[in-house]
Each structure stands twice: as structure tokens, then as C-alpha cells.
């Protein structure tokens, strides 16, 4: 699954330039543009892109703690497949080891682990589930 292809298919443009402030990324609803810091390593880039895609998907237009949470859950769902999660958590007990196994940041593992019901609900929402299954 290539997240930039998904972004394009969902109508978002991804550019690599330093976002304002000290952020790794940002999303502008009016221009449908996702900005990714150019110095991010692959795991950071994937998380930030998936997170900003969450803002795009939900149509977030500003900064709200609830929206940040929704974007985080969306990102965790994009980056972790249920069968891979089951296998990784049977093999490993530590968050860091699961993260390495799944090639995601430890933060993503914590989000998915802490709120699996929300992560499943994101997948089941109309539109998202159908598109996601075509990308796996």
C-alpha cells in the first residue's frame, strides 16, 4: 500500500516542505494539501502522512484535540493490518518490539492497542473500508 497513491486517489496533494511551527506535517483543508517535513525518516513519514490523511478524510478545518485523536486512530488503522497485529502481539509483549515487527512508530502501536474498537470502527465506516480493502 502506497500512502501517497491513496492521498492522490482521495483528492489530496502531498508536498515535501517544512510546515509552519515545529511540526512534522500539516493539512490545509481549503487547498487539500498535506505538507510533510522533508527530513522525516520512513516510519515518521508514513505516520505523519496517514495522520494528515485522517484530517483530510474527516474534513477537519482547524486544530481540535478530538480531531487530532481521530486522525491518530485513522493513521493507526491505515498502518496496521488486523492479521499482522494479531501475529505481532502473539510473538512480542513490548510495545517497541511490536512496533519493529509492524514497521511503525511505537506511538502507532499504543494508539491501536489502547483503542482497538475505535480503530475497527474507522475501518467499517462507509467509503473508507471499501477503498482500504482495494489497497491492501
Overall description:
- InterPro entries: IrrE_HExxH.
- Pfam families: Peptidase_M78.
- By secondary structure, the chain is mainly α.
- The chain has a domain of 94 residues.
- 61% of the residues lie in helices and 9% in strands.
- It is built from eight helices and three strands, in the order αβββααααααα.
- A three-stranded mixed beta sheet has the order 1-3-2, with helices on one face.
- α3 packs across α6.
- It is globular, with a radius of gyration of 14 Å.
Features:
globular; single chain; three-stranded mixed beta sheet; mainly alpha; 136 residues; disordered C terminus
SSE layout and pairing:
Blueprint: H1 3-9, E1 13-16, E2 25-28, E3 33-36, H2 42-58, H3 65-79, H4 82-91, H5 95-102, H6 106-114, H7 116-124, H8 128-135
Parallel strand pairs: 1-3
Antiparallel strand pairs: 2-3
Helix pairs in contact: 2-3, 3-6, 3-7, 4-5, 5-6
Pfam families: Peptidase_M78 (PF06114)
Domain IrrE N-terminal-like: 25-109
Number of strands: 3
- Walk across the major sheet and give the strand order: 1-3-2
CA(first)-CA(last) distance: 6 Å
Q: Largest sheet at a glance?
A: 3 strands, mixed
Which class of secondary structure composition applies to the elements? mainly alpha
In N-to-C order, the SSE pattern is HEEEHHHHHHH
Shape: globular
Give the helix proportion (percent range): 55-70%
Radius of gyration computed on alpha carbons:
14 Å
Mean pLDDT: 84
- Residues in β-strands, percent: 5-15%
State the helix count. Answer: 8
Low-confidence stretches: 123-136
Brief sketch in words of this structure:
This protein is 61% helix and 9% strand. By secondary structure, the protein is mostly helical. It has a domain at 42-135.
